[in-house]
Design brief:
73% strand; 1 helix; 232 residues; mainly beta; single chain; elongated
Length: 232
């Protein structure tokens, strides 16, 4: 759902509501000489996001935007494995993970002329991850995410963009809590994980040709912390 309203000739309010949900059921029957086993797993995911922004256009050169976002996500998994009719104990067979996240921020865009432009913003994000069931734990995170973009257009069809931004990713639920695959292999979760963070510095040169073609060259450097990797 999306709602947009012009509060005045210079201010606009926009609100969006997003809801996603999915579920899956897996059943595997393994039979070998003298051995048989069955594995069932049910997973349900849900994501609810409400975001709103208030944009003030002071002039053709200056725009100020205030934004806020709230999200509530859930992940519920249940697994059962039997061998010769007897249940096998599985770690983290019944786990529910919930995440509550909130973010507020402001962005200022200033274009003094057709040659130069500046976009600067700051967002503050706080979130809580909680697991219940076979795994009981809670993690709280708070981060500030500054960003600045400088643009230079020496000619009509040429533009150089410089960006510096502190990016914070979201922790995957499957990495946060342990899970069991269909073949009974346990994929251990890590409750001590922190979100992937990176200080990104970027330079982009765009050259447009004719009426619809363009050539874009990008140089990017990332200083990454708490990278989530998987070794199988």
């Amino acid at each position: 759902l999306r709602y947009t309203r012009n509060l005045s000739t210079r201010s606009t309010l926009e609100t969006q509501l997003l809801q996603r949900s999915s579920s899956s059921d897996t059943f595997t029957d393994n039979k070998r000489p003298g051995q048989s086993s069955q594995f069932t797993q049910s997973q349900t995911r849900s994501e609810s996001v409400l975001r709103s922004s208030l944009r003030f256009k002071q002039s053709g050169r200056l725009t100020v935007e205030f934004a806020g976002e709230g999200a509530f996500n859930t992940f519920d998994t249940t697994a059962l494995e039997t061998a010769a009719g007897l249940a096998r104990p599985l770690p983290a067979a019944d786990v529910e993970v919930t995440e509550g996240r909130g973010e507020i921020g402001a962005t200022v865009t200033w274009k003094p002329n057709g040659t130069y432009g500046v976009t600067a913003g700051l967002k503050a994000e706080t979130s809580t991850l909680r697991a219940t069931g076979d795994v009981n734990l809670q993690r709280d995170f708070t981060y500030a995410k500054p960003r600045i973009i400088l643009t230079w257009s020496p000619r009509k069809n040429t533009q150089l963009r410089l960006r510096s931004e502190y990016e914070v990713s979201q922790i995957s639920f499957s990495n946060f809590a342990a899970a069991v695959e269909y073949n009974g292999v346990v994929r251990a979760g890590n409750p001590g994980l922190r979100p992937r963070r990176a200080q990104v510095t970027e330079a982009v040169l765009e050259q447009q040709f004719w009426t619809g073609a363009s050539l874009v060259t990008t140089l990017r450097h990332q200083a990454i912390r708490d990278l989530v990797d998987t070794d199988r």
